[in-house]
Design brief:
Layout lengths: L2 H19 L9 H8 L6 E4 L3 H4 L14 E4 L1 H22 L5 H6 L7 E2 L5 E5 L4 H6 L6 H12 L8 E4 L19 H18 L3 E5 L1 H8 L5 H4 L4 E3 L2 E6 L2 H6 L3 H18 L5 H4 L6
Parallel strand pairs: 4-5, 4-6, 6-8
Antiparallel strand pairs: 1-2, 3-5, 7-8
Helix pairs in contact: 1-4, 2-4, 4-8
Length: 288
C-alpha cells in the first residue's frame, strides 16, 4: 500500500469517526460503490487523455499537456481513484442531510455540495450558494458562475475537469427579504468548514483558487484586503492557494486592468499545475 493511498484511507476513517461522534448512525452507500470497492484491482489500462496533467496523481514536476500522449493507470492508481470516489460519495450523503445550522436548514431548497472532477489538480472555492445555486443544487451557476466558467475555459479547461465548491454548503437565509443574497457569517463558515476540509483531504488538489475576500477569510482565516492578497500564493495544509477577485466583483467592475489582474492570477495557477500557456493567453486583456 502506497503512502498516498494510506493517507487517503486514514482521512476517510477519520471522517467516519467524526460522523459517528456527531451522532450519525449510518451512511448510505450505493450498490455501485459497494461493487467498485469489492471488485478486484483492474488490469493496466491505456486511455487517451487530452489533459494528462488533469488525470495524473501528483506528478513530481509540472509537465505540458500533450494530446498525442496517453496515460497508464496502474492497479494501485485505479484503486486510489475508486477509494476517492467512494469516500466522496459517503461524504456527499452525510453533507446532504446536515442539520448543524437550523436557520439555514429551514430556508434552503437543497444542499450545494460541489461539482466537477475530484481527480483534478485544480479546485475553486467560493463563499456560499446564492438563489440560483440553491435552486439548481450546483455552485456558480448564476451570472457570476457563468463568468467563472468562461475564465476556466480561457485556461483551456472546462467545469468538468476542475472541482468547484463553496465554504458554506447552504444558501445563507435572508429573513425579511424576498430577493437577494447575503454573505455567510464567520460562525456559519466555521461550522460548515469541516465539510470543505473533508473534500480537500479526499481530493488532494495541487492548487486551490479562493474566489473573493470572504472565501479567503473562511478558508485561511485572513482578513487582509483581497487587493493585497490576490496574485500571491498562500499555503493551506501544504497546498498552494491563489486568492483572487470573486467573479461577481468583475461583473461590477468592468475595468480592463481588473480583468487583467484576475487573468494574471490564473496564469500563475496554470504555470503551477503545468498547463501550457499560449502567446494569445499571455496577452489577454493587455492594452494595445
Amino acid at each position: 500500500m502506497s503512502e498516498a493511498f494510506r493517507q487517503l484511507l486514514d482521512a476517510t476513517l477519520q471522517h467516519m469517526e467524526a460522523l459517528k461522534a456527531a451522532g450519525t448512525k449510518y451512511v448510505p452507500v450505493s450498490v455501485e460503490t459497494l461493487a467498485a470497492l469489492s471488485a478486484p484491482p483492474r488490469r493496466l489500462a491505456v486511455r487517451p487523455s487530452a489533459h494528462p496533467v488533469l488525470t495524473a496523481s501528483r506528478p513530481a514536476a509540472p509537465r505540458p499537456v500533450d494530446s498525442s500522449t496517453s496515460t497508464i493507470d496502474s492497479p494501485e492508481t485505479l484503486m486510489k481513484k475508486e477509494a476517492k470516489d467512494a469516500a466522496l460519495a459517503a461524504l456527499r450523503q452525510s453533507v446532504l442531510v446536515c442539520q448543524k445550522c437550523p436557520a439555514l436548514v429551514k430556508t434552503r431548497s437543497q444542499v450545494v455540495f460541489g461539482v466537477g472532477d475530484i481527480h483534478s489538480p485544480l479546485m475553486f472555492v467560493g463563499e456560499a450558494p446564492g438563489a440560483d445555486e440553491d435552486a439548481q443544487g450546483e455552485p456558480f451557476v448564476g451570472k457570476a458562475g457563468q463568468l467563472l466558467t468562461k475564465i476556466i475555459q480561457a485556461m483551456g479547461l472546462s467545469r468538468d475537469t476542475v472541482f468547484i465548491a463553496n465554504i458554506l454548503k447552504c444558501r445563507p437565509d435572508t429573513p425579511g427579504q424576498t430577493a437577494g443574497n447575503r454573505k455567510p457569517t464567520l460562525d456559519e463558515m466555521k461550522t460548515c468548514l469541516p465539510h470543505l476540509l473533508a473534500q480537500i483531504d479526499i481530493m488532494e488538489p495541487r492548487v486551490i483558487v479562493a474566489l473573493g475576500a470572504t472565501a479567503v477569510a473562511g478558508l485561511l482565516g485572513l482578513t487582509t484586503g483581497i487587493t493585497k492578497l490576490r496574485g500571491h500564493f498562500q499555503t493551506f495544509r501544504g497546498i498552494p492557494v491563489m486568492p483572487t477577485y470573486h467573479p461577481a466583483y468583475l461583473l461590477r467592475n468592468q475595468a480592463l486592468a481588473v480583468k487583467r489582474e484576475v487573468w494574471e492570477d490564473m496564469l500563475q495557477v496554470m504555470e503551477k499545475i503545468g498547463l501550457p500557456i499560449s502567446k494569445k493567453q499571455r496577452n489577454f486583456f493587455l492594452a494595445h
